[in-house]
Amino acid sequence: MSFTVTTRHLGDFDVIVSGGGIAGTFAAASAAREGGKVLLIEANGCLGGTLTTGAVPSIMDEVGKGGMLSELFSFLNERGMSVARFGKKIDENGKKIPGRIVDIEGCKFFLEHLVLNAGGQILYYSRVAGCETEDRQLKRLLICTEAGNYTATAKIYIDATG
Predict the structure, then answer these.
(1) CA nearest neighbour of 102 among 81, 86, 85
(2) Is 110 in contact with 76 (CB distance < 8 Å)?
(3) Tens digits of per-residue pLDDT, 120-148?
(4) What are the DSSP calls for 43-93, one per residue?
(5) Contact criterion met (CB below 8 Å) for 15 and 31
(6) pLDDT score recorded for residue 86
(7) 103 in Cβ contact with 119 (< 8 Å)
(8) What residues contact 129, with CB distance under 8 A and at least 6 apart?
(9) Do the beta carbons of residue 120 and residue 102 sit within 8 Å?
(10) CA-based angle 8:120:124, to the nearest 5?
(11) Max CA separation in the chain (angstroms)
(12) pLDDT per residue over 63-91, tens digit each?
C-alpha cells in the first residue's frame, strides 16, 4: 500500500527542536539567543511539558543551577507566582514566601515569551510525523499540524520529546 501526503515547505532553519518541555524550550531559546533561526515544535497548546500540561508544579533540584532556570524562578518570585514547598507559605505580612511550587500559568507565559523574545518560532498542536534521511543524516522533517502537513529542514535537529 502506498499513499501520497500533500505538504508545504515551512522553511529552512538553523535549529529545529521537537518537544517544548523545559529542556526543549531552553534549547530553543538558547539557540535563538545565539542568533539562530529556530523552530520549536510542540504537541500541546503550551510549553512546559510535565510542569504545565502534567500539572506538576514543582521543579526538582533547581537550587544553584543558574541560567534560564534562574530566570524562570526570578520571573515567578517577583510576581508572587511561587511558594515554599515546605513550611510557611505566607509571611507575617500576608506575602507569599518565594519557593519551589510554581504557578503553572505563570510558567506557560514565561516559557513562551522566553522563546519568542529570543526570536524563535513556535508551532503548537504539531508533531514530527516522519523524516527523510540521506547517508544516515537527517535531511527533512514531516510535521503534521491542525492546519495541514509541512516539511522543514535544519542544520541541527534536537529531539526533546522525552
Answers:
(1) 81
(2) yes
(3) 999 999 999 999 999 999 999 999 999 99
(4) SSSSSBGGGTTT---B-TT-TT--HHHHHHHHHHHHTT-EE-SSS-SB-TT
(5) yes
(6) 63
(7) no
(8) 142, 143, 144, 149
(9) no
(10) 55
(11) 70
(12) 677 899 889 988 988 898 887 666 666 77
All 3 cell numbers of residue 68? 534560564
Q: Which amino acid is at 101?
A: I
What mean pLDDT value characterizes the chain? 90
Query: What is d(CA 138, CA 141) in angstroms, rounded to the nearest whole number?
Result: 8
d(CA 39, CA 9): 13
> Where on the phi/psi map is residue 60: left (φ > 0), alpha (ψ -120 to 50), or beta?
beta
Residue with cell 534560564: 68
Distance, in Å, from the CA atom of 39 to the CA atom of 147, rounded to the nearest integer, reads: 17
